[in-house]
Amino acid sequence: MARITSRLIVDGALPLQPAISPDGRWVAYTVSTLGRPEDRQRSAIWIAATDASSPPRKLTAGAAKDFLPRWAPDSASLYFGSDRVERGTVQLHRISADGGEAETLTTRPGGISDHLPLAGHGLVAVVAEDAPACEDVRVWGEHVPYGRLWLLDPDTGRLGKVEGLDDRHVAELAQCPDAGPLAVLSWAVPDLDPGCSTCALHVVDPETGTVRDLGDVEPAASSPVWWRTDGVWHLCYLATTPPGPVGGRAVFDVTVPAAGAAADRRNLTAGMAVCPAGLAQVAHGPPLALFADGLDTAIHRLDPATGRFQRMSRVAGLAVSLTASHSGEVVAALVSSAYEPMNVHAGPPAARLTRLSDTRPELRGLRWGTQERLSYRAADGLDLDGLLILPVGASRHDGPFPLVTLVHGGPYARYADQFMLGVFPSGQWLAAAGYAVFLPNPRGGEGHGHAFAASVAGAVGMDEWTDIVTGIDVLIEDGVADPDRLGIGGWSHGGFMAAWAVGRTTRFKAAVMGAGICEGAGPHRHDELSPVSYASEIRTPVLILHGEDDTNVPLGQSTYFHRALRRFGVEHEFVVYPREGHAIRERGHQLDVLERTRAWFDRWLAGPAWRSPC
């Protein structure tokens, strides 16, 4: 029987960016390799019938980076970005839904970064960055490529810049149904410091280029959609709620007032026990939304009468990237469940969605570790959930096993009951080597409402740490985990938690800190809640991994922790991946992460006692 290897994981295909046609008959999507080749990223555009009446077909060859499919208003053709003309420079292209040769529509020296075909105007809204500066120096905040809004006539090639957005970065676009104006979300600056950009909302008339400012909106605003009730147009969007950026996301609603009138803004998800994760525009009705709901995902529709979202259906596991037809009668999304990798699904929003794509057939027939849903109570009685993956071929009766706890990032993220096979030492990768894997959802994450998410603001590493320890103790009491062979790891905020854990206790025999913060000025009590403050107490061997060009969590955080560990004689390794940002993208580096992390746990946990028979 085939075995799970690091190459099997990294060389797999991944569906991305589903876009349903306005008539609801087709869904286009991108298929890319999980690991980026060192020479060039390649991806292809695929198309599938939403009723599954025919198998998916490849629309572009995938010899270049073909991505960002967007449908023409008549559903007859697709616009997409590609660097097929010049490597590394993305230009806009158009291709018939029936296939054939693609037409190149832009030839800008700096290329484009986003686009949106506009109904009723024969135009395409294009976001293109300013020409890069040539100076061989880096001045923070200067010479950063801003996204500017342009309007393209695809038949003549005429490209006109939209003035009136001041010196702001264009982040996202959405056109009002029935050939209406364009909603524009902008940031004060491009994404230099996540969570620090000032967001604003604008309305642009494509005919005249006139810009109306609706004012500043909440941080990290995204996913704008239009809807109408009682003759008044509204704009909904996702944004971070106070105390942010830790507090989680909500759906905000803004009326689009007559000229000169003030816009009315309200939070549509206040008090809900679930968390919004995506919005989809419906031309003749209120918007649809995805909600993180515990370990699952739900599709909701906004009820105009009450101003509240009502659940239509539930998707087992994880669903992301919701897209809807013009009428809203058909939707598509990327869906993954416990033993099924991410694929494109489609169907009516109130019914079970049907899988359309099959991007990883090579995984069929492999044996996976049994994935269990966990529920337990925190020390203060709060209900918590998470996942347990047992070693491949094992049951609970074969325990206790060496246990590796993997903490998710964020902290505003979660583990849904999805297929756990990824490039950071994922659950199934470790389960194939004989480890039990605990995937906790401590407070601070999404899926349980705003209060749950906001509870760690100013107190990272406190109650969420206790939540994790409580779950480990439950698994020890149940005979699943060997208390003498415990490991912990995580990436980003999960990396912070791994660094925090080894400074609070010596019960872990190995730890992996991936792109984690070790010290910082807030929002928290600096010295008390910084892992580096406890470096002298650390006895656990630590593997530190970080991308050299990470601007989210700068490399200096890991460098500082490495120096502290060296100062106190703590066994550790410090690995820096060149050319990488906050996520590790290059194929060779991903292979190294997988192999190196598993070898680290093998070394310090004395090797798993249970080995899969497969």
Automatic annotation (TrEMBL):
Entry-linked InterPro entries: 6-blade_b-propeller_TolB-like, AB_hydrolase_fold, Peptidase_S9_cat, WD40
Coiled-coil boundaries: none
Domain Peptidase S9 prolyl oligopeptidase catalytic: 428-518, 523-606
Any one biological process term the GO annotation gives: proteolysis
Keywords: Aminopeptidase, Hydrolase, Protease, Serine protease
SUPFAM superfamilies named in the record: alpha/beta-Hydrolases, DPP6 N-terminal domain-like
Gene Ontology molecular-function annotations: aminopeptidase activity; serine-type endopeptidase activity
PANTHER family: DIPEPTIDYL PEPTIDASE FAMILY MEMBER 6, SERINE PEPTIDASE S9 FAMILY MEMBER
Designated name of the protein: Dipeptidyl aminopeptidase
